[in-house]
Amino acid sequence: MKLTDRTLGIAAILFAVFLGVFGYDLEAPFSYEPIGPKAFPLLIAVLMTICGLILTVRGGNEAEENTTSANLRILTMVVYIILYAFLFQLLGFVISTALMTTFVGKLFGAKWWQAIVSGVVMSVLMFLLFDVSLDVVLPEGLLRGVL
């Protein structure tokens, strides 16, 4: 099968339908935000559907095949995302996000010190943005009592 913009567009639409179906049933056991947890996946599904439709209607450009190293980086990124999802509650937002951004930074060629510093700074700033500014409850994990 040749990979084209249309192929990606159809795949995006199918994934958006999947995201919309499962995102629609999200309900919080208690109300802690005015719009609830289903708004984000549904918004992403709508945007992904629009982009998928644009690629399907307008597209047709053939894509080059990935190199082996690119496929390995993609697979590594998928593993990082899965680990992030499993460790999010246990370690908390700050630690899990710092680890995720550190390893992603290293995956994209940063030096270890750059990846660590940017990972820690980014996770703390994002925690402050969401927790303090937007009043979104995030898991504290191992830092419970410190934050």
From TrEMBL:
InterPro entries: DUF1468. Signal peptide: none annotated. The chain crosses the membrane at residues 39-57, 78-100, 112-134. This is Tripartite tricarboxylate transporter TctB family. Residues 10-139 form the DUF1468 domain. Keywords: Membrane, Transmembrane, Transmembrane helix.
